[in-house]
TrEMBL record:
The name this protein goes by in its record: Protein phosphatase 1A
Organism the protein comes from: Takifugu rubripes
Domain PPM-type phosphatase intervals: 54-323
Cofactor requirements of the protein: Mn(2+); Mg(2+)
Quaternary context: Monomer. Interacts with SMAD2; the interaction dephosphorylates SMAD2 in its C-terminal SXS motif resulting in disruption of the SMAD2/SMAD4 complex, SMAD2 nuclear export and termination of the TGF-beta-mediated signaling. Interacts with SMAD2; the interaction dephosphorylates SMAD2 in its C-terminal SXS motif resulting in disruption of the SMAD2/SMAD4 complex, SMAD2 nuclear export and termination of the TGF-beta-mediated signaling. Interacts with the phosphorylated form of IKBKB/IKKB.
Function: Enzyme with a broad specificity. Negatively regulates TGF-beta signaling through dephosphorylating SMAD2 and SMAD3, resulting in their dissociation from SMAD4, nuclear export of the SMADs and termination of the TGF-beta-mediated signaling. Dephosphorylates PRKAA1 and PRKAA2. Plays an important role in the termination of TNF-alpha-mediated NF-kappa-B activation through dephosphorylating and inactivating IKBKB/IKKB.
Subcellular location: Cytoplasm, Cytosol; Membrane; Nucleus
Length: 413
């Protein structure tokens, strides 16, 4: 059972407790026969801590078993930057090569370029760090282009990148493309990055100056993002510099002074998350989850699952980084959540019983019925969608005719 279950959830921070938990869930799942029928929910997880930060990440990449890691999480940076950390999410398109390459090499391109080095040695100013980050992006893009040309341009893939570099004094938000990063401070959204969509006036202007057009909100009617690494087909207008092309690899870098005690958490996520959750909504949800668990992988998984149930069809990746000022687990909130789960389980039972001789209603019916009722204490931002797992588990337990492939995005239609 364990062997069956393990590959379904690759966990990179193994410890005996975790293994025991996996073993238990493996057992439970096997006896209930309930959950193994959901390849779509297969996730890659990781977590860690250091420099007074804790992080957890989750990514779910559709039906395919291909586990490509499109994250970077590094606590303690090279070149003696022990007290600095770096996190990033890469969302690839038209293939995964560029996302993969950036995931492995972007940080080194940033920290080793001479502009960044100058910021560390000669003139340690915020502007110099920002400039060094920008140089790293332009440099890795040029480097990947050279590799791609050597292979006669077989790689047509591209990738957005959103990240944060956290120094002892500042948070540097870095964005290139339509993923998004945000900072929650003092119980509210304090900052979020701007998405680079072809329709934005500045992006549109650059695209048009490079001889392209924006149609159906896409560059030349095809690419939905106006800044990205890779995408070299969109970077070959003669006489124009690298940041003047149809698609630009130039990141926007914002420096925010840290605020000890007030800074709560940072979320980095690709557009599959933001398509179905607003900034405030997601922050409220995360805050409510942090009050019931300090397991950041679990919180990240709940974000991804909730977005799936809210109808996102995209690949989803999320990194959650917590500062010491993040909300703490509260016994009150834990109890409220347990009560809510019990209440929902009771409701599911009631709905199934009500159907009587007509047989067991399908899960879509159960969800719709629940959605039409006013249920107290649902998690803010996540609402009923965030409780889908609990509802489904109860439903499966009570349904003797459970089919093994009740795959449930159906209800959207
Ligand atoms: C994203 O999902 C789609 C459809 O499920 C898949 O074809 C594509 O390869 C995925 N992309 C990545 C980067 O995993
Ligand atoms: C974009 O459209 C312009 C104008 O039609 C064309 O000259 C250019 O080759 C196109 N570029 C790409 C990458 O499609």
């Amino acid at each position: 059972m364990v062997i069956l279950f393990l590959p379904w959830k690759l966990i990179s921070c193994f410890n005996p407790l975790h293994l025991f938990f996996l073993f238990l869930t493996g057992l439970i799942r096997d006896t209930m026969g309930a959950f193994l029928d959901k390849p779509k929910m297969e996730k890659y997880n990781s977590c860690g801590e250091g420099n007074n930060l804790r992080y957890g990440l989750s990514s779910m990449q559709g039906w395919r078993v291909e586990m490509e890691d499109a994250h970077t999480a590094v606590i303690g940076l090279p070149h003696a930057l022990d007290h600095w950390s770096f996190f990033a999410v890469y969302d690839g398109h038209a293939g995964s090569q560029v996302a993969k390459y950036c995931c492995e090499h972007l940080l080194e391109h940033i920290t080793s370029n001479s502009d960044f080095q100058r910021a560390l040695q000669e003139d340690p100013s915020v502007d110099n760090v920002k400039n060094g980050i920008r140089t790293g992006f332009l440099q890795i893009d040029e480097h990947m282009r050279t590799i791609s040309e050597k292979k006669h341009g077989v790689d047509r893939s591209g990738s957005t990148a959103v990240g944060v570099m956290i120094s002892p004094s500042h948070i540097y938000f870095i964005n290139c493309g339509d993923s998004r990063g945000l900072l929650s401070r003092g119980g509210a959204v304090h900052f979020f990055t701007q998405d680079h969509k072809p329709n934005n006036p500045l992006e549109k202007e650059r695209i048009q100056k490079a001889g392209g057009s924006v149609m159906i909100q896409r560059v030349n009617g095809s690419l939905a993002v106006s800044r990205a690494l890779g995408d070299f087909d969109y970077k070959c207008v003669h006489g124009k510099g690298p940041t003047e092309q149809l698609v630009s690899p130039e990141p926007e870098v914002y420096a925010i002074e840290r605020c000890e005690g007030e800074d709560e958490f940072i979320i980095l996520a690709c557009d599959g998350i933001w398509d179905v959750m607003g900034n405030e909504q997601l922050c409220d949800f995360v805050r409510s989850r942090l009050e019931v668990t300090d397991d950041l992988e679990r919180v990240s998984n709940e974000i991804v699952d909730t977005c799936l149930y809210k109808g996102s069809r995209d690949n989803m990746s999320v990194v959650l980084i917590c500062f010491p000022g993040a909300p703490k687990v509260s016994p009150d909130a834990v109890k409220k959540e347990a009560d809510l789960d019990k209440y929902l389980e009771g409701k599911v039972e009631e709905i199934i019983k009500k159907q009587g001789d007509e047989g067991v209603p399908d899960l879509v019916h159960v969800m719709r019925t629940l959605a039409s009722e006013s249920i107290p204490n649902l998690p803010p931002g996540g609402e009923l969608a965030s409780k889908r797992t609990v509802i489904e588990a109860m439903y499966n337990k009570l349904n003797p005719y459970r089919s093994d492939d009740t795959y449930l995005l159906k209800e959207e239609g």
